[in-house]
Amino acid sequence: MIEKPLLVLDFDGVIVDGIKEYWSSSRQTCLNILSPQEKENIYLPSQIPSTFKAMRPWVHHGWEMVILAAECSNKTSPLNLKGVQNFSKNYSKECSLALKKWDWTPSQLQEALNQTRREAISSDFNQWLNYHQPFSSAVQRLQRLEKEGIEFAVLTTKSIEFTKKLLNCFNLQPNLVFGHESGSKINVLNQLLNKRIIRGFIEDRR
Questions:
Q1: What is the mean pLDDT of residues 103-126?
Q2: How far apart are CA 8 and CA 182, in angstroms?
Q3: What is the mean pLDDT of residues 1-23?
Q4: Is residue 133 helix, strand or coil?
Q5: What is the separation of C-alpha 10 from the centre of its chain, rounded to a whole number of angstroms?
Q6: CA distances (Å), 100 to each of 67, 104, 106, 108, 157, in order?
Q7: Judging by DSSP bridges, how do beta strands 176-178 and 151-155 pair with one another?
Q8: At what angle are helices 63-72 and 106-123 packed, to 10 degrees?
C-alpha cells in the first residue's frame, strides 16, 4: 500500500460549477437525437430549467443528464407531473422507464453527449470553457496540497477526456483522474481503499 495520503474529490460542484455547460450540452444532445415529431412535444429553452438544476445532484452518469433534459422539457413527463421529490425517490427506476419511453440506451446517450461536447470544443473552445466557473478558493487550496505532502485525485461522472482539459486550464494536476469510464464512484473508492490511505472524499450533494 502507498503510504502517501490521498484526498479524493468530486469535480462538478466541488472544483467547478458547470451547470451552464451541463444544460447546454444536454439540450443540444436532445436536439441532435430527437426526431422532428418528438421535438414538437417538448420545449428546450436556452435558460436552465429549475427542475434540471434541482435534479443535477442525483446524476450518477453523464447520459442521465440527457434523460433529465428531455423529461423536464416535456410537460406530461413523470418528472413534471410527479415533481422533483417524488421522481428522485425512485430515481434509477424513473430513468430506466424514461429510457424505454424514448427508446434510448445509456451507451447511445453517452456517446451522443460526448460528441456534442467535442463539437462545442472544436467550434468555440473559449465559450465551452467559460461555461465552467471554477471555485477559486478550492483551486487555490488544491494547488497548495503538494507542498503539504498530500496527493489528490478527481472522481467524476464526466468523461476523463473533458475533465483533463478543464483541469489543465485551471492549472491543476491531480495524481489520478477517474471518469465515467472508470466505473461507479463506489467501486472506484473501494479499489482505492485497497491501495491507498484515503484522507477523505469530498462530494457535492447540493
A1: 95
A2: 14
A3: 91
A4: strand
A5: 10
A6: 11, 6, 11, 13, 22
A7: parallel
A8: 90
Q: Tell me which amino acid residue 160 is.
A: I
Alpha carbon 104 to its chain centroid, in Å, reads: 19
- Show the cell assigned to 107: 451507451
Residue whose cell numbers read 430513468: 95
Buried b (16+ CB within 10 A) or exposed e, 179-202: bbebeebeebeeebeeebeeeeee
DSSP 3-state assignment of 183?
coil
Residue 172's identity, in one-letter code, is L
C-alpha cell at 77: 413527463
pTM for the full model? 0.85
- What pLDDT digit, counting tens, does each position of 63-91 carry? 999 999 999 999 999 999 989 999 999 99
Looking at residues 27-55, what average pLDDT do you find? 93
Exposed e or buried b per residue across 57-84, where buried means at least 16 C-beta atoms within 10 angstroms of its C-beta: ebbebbbbbbbbbbbbbbeebbbbeeeb
DSSP letters for 34-101: S-HHHHTT----SSPPHHHHHHGGG-SSTHHHHHHHHHHT-TTSHHHHH-HHHHHHTHHHHHHHHHHH
